[in-house]
Amino acid sequence: MVWDQLSLPPRISSALQRTNLKSVREVLSLPAVDVQRLTGLAHAEVHQLLTAAADACRRHAPLSVLQLQRGECCRCESGLRLGVSCPVLDGLLRGGLPVGGITELSGQSGAGKTQLALQISLSVQYPVEHGGLGAGALYICTEDSFPIRRLQQMISEQAILRSEVPSSLISGLRFSDHVYIEHAADLDSLQVCLSRRAPVLLAAGLVRLIVVDSVAALFRSEFQAEDWMERNKQLLTFSSMLHQLSQEFTTPVLCINQVTDVLKDHDSLGPLSSSVTPALGLAWANQVLVRLMIRRLQKTVSRGDQSSALRQLEVVFAPHLARSKCEVAVWREGVRGVMAFE
């Protein structure tokens, strides 16, 4: 690190060059008293040094609340949401998934998590005026093979699911060409995907949605119970990469999660009434902006020649949403709400 590149007085730069500190990250990782001891600088000079080091690490200039309110941030699209192609679900989510941050969708096997993820992977390809973001989706599979046949079926039924959209627009969208599928069998391949391939697709404008299906699979299979500290460390590294991609490219991230049994049914981080809670514990819950949970009910609903098990989609927590829920069903064309949310 060439300390002269920082906007510092010569006295501070010279003091730094006499130390063994090699980078601004090293400076920021030390308490101010240790920096003062190593450099021999006055307290005010140490404060000036730390401020300059922090500015060097910051990728973007800070923004005031007034700038955000006026919409002067080119990186932030205030109020923009990714719709899920269903008026009832969009109403539950107040427009859809937020474009910044991680949305988690958890539930038991067969609840309909992947069905909804596939639907959103198609919804993102619509123009903004129709609830999309005008780009494709990066779909990362960590468990099963990608359900390509189900995706093709949903594509063929888009005219039914999105009857409010002009048919000429739907026929002009090449949905299958814009779902980029990656398979990650271990944490190393997942890291390669997020650090190398995802940024390329995002920077080129080819994708505007990242789906990880599922986040719990790799962390459950690669770590034993006694390895919880290392697991949490890797989990935080993974979530940090997702947050960075989401914020840098204004991209929603949808993570499918498994569930685990609980002894209590009043956990504040779980659903209102269920014997399961999302996997990976508090370390992961703190990284999530919106937590949704879907569960299968002991009811069936019919429509024409189709029948579907009734599901319940619940908003467990979100900074902009009340804790609420609605009932949904899975049809050939996709996931639809069957009654107004509570």
UniProtKB/TrEMBL annotation:
Domain of life: Eukaryota
PROSITE patterns assigned: RECA_2
GO cellular component, one term: nucleus
Record keywords, A-Z: ATP-binding, DNA damage, DNA recombination, DNA repair, DNA-binding, Nucleotide-binding, Nucleus
Subcellular location: Nucleus
Domain RecA family profile: from-to ranges: 78-259
SUPFAM superfamilies named among the record's database cross-references: P-loop containing nucleoside triphosphate hydrolases
Major site of localization recorded for this protein: nucleus
GO process terms (BP): DNA repair
Gene3D superfamilies: P-loop containing nucleotide triphosphate hydrolases
Keyword check for Hydrolase: no
GO molecular function: ATP binding; ATP-dependent DNA damage sensor activity; DNA binding
InterPro entries in alphabetical order: DNA_recomb/repair_RecA-like (IPR016467), HHH_XRCC3_RAD51B (IPR058766), P-loop_NTPase (IPR027417), Rad51_C (IPR013632), RecA_ATP-bd (IPR020588), XRCC3-like_C (IPR047348)
Family in the record: Belongs to the RecA family. RAD51 subfamily.
Protein name: X-ray repair complementing defective repair in Chinese hamster cells 3
Species: Oryzias latipes (Japanese rice fish)
